[in-house]
Amino acid sequence: MRECELCGVRARVHCEADQARLCWDCDGKVHGANFLVAKHPRSLLCHGCQSLTPWTGSGSKLTPTVSVCETCVERRGSKFERQAEVQESEAENDGDDDDEEEDDDIDDCDESDEDENQVVPWSCCSYSAADPPLVASCSSSKEEQEEEEYSVSKRMLLFLRESF
């Protein structure tokens, strides 16, 4: 675990200008001191391995956010794909009795499934006009549904769900 360079708790942010790893509280104190340091670019550290992620931001106080590096997403994604293959082969061995029910669930686009996969910000203040809101969609065909299951964003959500 990489620690905050000021207080010793788990680091969450890396400040490019200061070359420092900071926790949320220390980041807010340091970068809230004046408008110049608030402009320092910062990157989130990966929730899994604490390496730098593509997410960057600046401002006096960043909203606590979870981010995952591409390596952890790919690693977890390949594990997810292997599990999906095993589950598919088990389902084929079980028979076709459950296929009709599964098709109905896909067609209905069950609202509870959408709720489980929604990305919800921790604070209303973290939303900016430049970022469009996330919209849940319902796939109409089975091919579209399968493509959606293997997308990077889906793998990231599964990684985060398993991490907590």
3D architecture notes:
One of its GO terms (molecular function) is zinc ion binding. The protein has 164 residues and is α+β, with helices and mostly antiparallel strands. It has a domain at 1-78. Helices cover 42% and strands 10% of the residues. It has helices spanning 24-31, 70-94, 99-108, 111-116, 142-149, 152-163, and strands at residues 13-15, 20-22, 42-45, 52-57. It has a four-stranded antiparallel sheet. Helix 2 (70-94) packs across helix 6. The protein is elongated, with a radius of gyration of 20 Å. The two termini are 17 Å apart.
Provide a quick synopsis of the model.
With 164 residues, this protein is an alpha+beta fold. The protein has helices at residues 24-31, 70-94, 99-108, 111-116, 142-149, 152-163, and strands at residues 13-15, 20-22, 42-45, 52-57. It has a 4-stranded antiparallel beta sheet with strand order 2-1-3-4.
